[in-house]
Amino acid sequence: MATQYQQAVEGVVTPQMRRVGERERVEAEFIRGEVAAGRLVIPANRRHLAGDAATGVKLDPVGIGRAVTTKINANIGTSSVSSNEDVELEKLRCAVRYGADAVMDLSTGGDLDHIRGHLIANASVPVGTVPVYSMIADRTIEELTTDDMLAEIRRQAEQGVDFFTIHAGILRGHLELLSTRKIGIVSRGGSLLAKWMLHHGRENPLYEMFDEISAICREHDVTYSLGDGLRPGCLADASDEAQFAELATLGELVRRARAAGVQCMVEGPGHVPVDQIQMNMTRQAEVCDGAPFYVLGPVVTDVFPGYDHITAAIGATLAAYHGAAFLCYVTPTEHLSLPQPEDVKAGCIACKIAAHAADVARKLPAARDWDDAMAAARAELDWSGQFELAFDAEDARRIRGRDLTGQDDYCAMCGRKWCAVRLSRQVKHALKGH
Questions:
Q1: Which of 4, 156, 209, 304 makes an SS bond possible with 161, Cβ 3.0 to 4.6 Å?
Q2: Under 8 Å CB-to-CB from 152, ≥6 apart: which residues?
Q3: Quick check: pTM over 0.70?
Q4: Count of C-beta atoms within a 10 Å radius of residue 304
């Protein structure tokens, strides 16, 4: 059976393209054209599309690309220190509730196959993974064989994973470029593969087996998310020779993925100063032939641990405005700990703000309608209307309710006498009378 990409190239509008068009309020034929051009992907494993018999949940297709609204991803998953499948399910539901368009299971502790299957069975959004994590669940990276790698990728594709982060762009020759870096490699997948290459004295096996991996992805319609194993982990390492050497390889892999009939997006940098964000987005689009760009943040300063969801939202707004199509959230626990449900909520909301702000600035059709409706409700001091429109109505009601309840035509910030909006309404009414 042909992939979304192959069918799009052949002129076929699939049900998934129709659903994405419906969600984006554009014609399905427009979506088909973007998929065919490689500028938009619809991560939709056939197994996940079929749904889970026990839960009754199935995938609701999502389109990721510059021609549609900016999407956000939430990373969840256990660690070797903390492993609880019920908490991960709670985090999945929290992420979706607060705006995540996709989630990635980055579990490294517990029964990884069971946790992954549990999440897929309960996820209506696309689920992504980094298969190399599971490859070393019961062995060291040095012990890993190429047969082990392909077997794990195949197992996850059969399980229903919608997109894979495959770190096939980090090559053995790139490692010598790391000597000037302050931190080196901060990507878990990138560091594992670097260690494998040095131990075996060989090239990156995921690069060498890219055609075989593509065949598995094509069979199940799994989308590539080509991983940035050499992404910068601090401002000092941003936009260096190592990062861009890997990016050149990722551009090559984009073309190979498309030739194999596989959908493909590309992952981008993590820590980038504000003044370098536009250049990074433009360069990726040129090198990777317009493939959707998936960025982590970027985090724009290194010195606010505990608040990195905010520093990342600043970078993400600029990234989405200048070229990114998919934003990976950052939580307050980044660099510190495994996120809990409340951290997932904070990360999703910060990232959603960034995505929406960028879409408004890009002047996407109807992107500002929501804001204009809120402005109208505020002008009328219509609290019920404001709560209905608020992204997080529960928190909005709770905050107002700390001092005032009901439909009073003012808030506790200014009070009745000093409320500028209330006074402005009086002025407007008086002018109408003249």
A1: 156
A2: 131, 134, 135
A3: yes
A4: 16
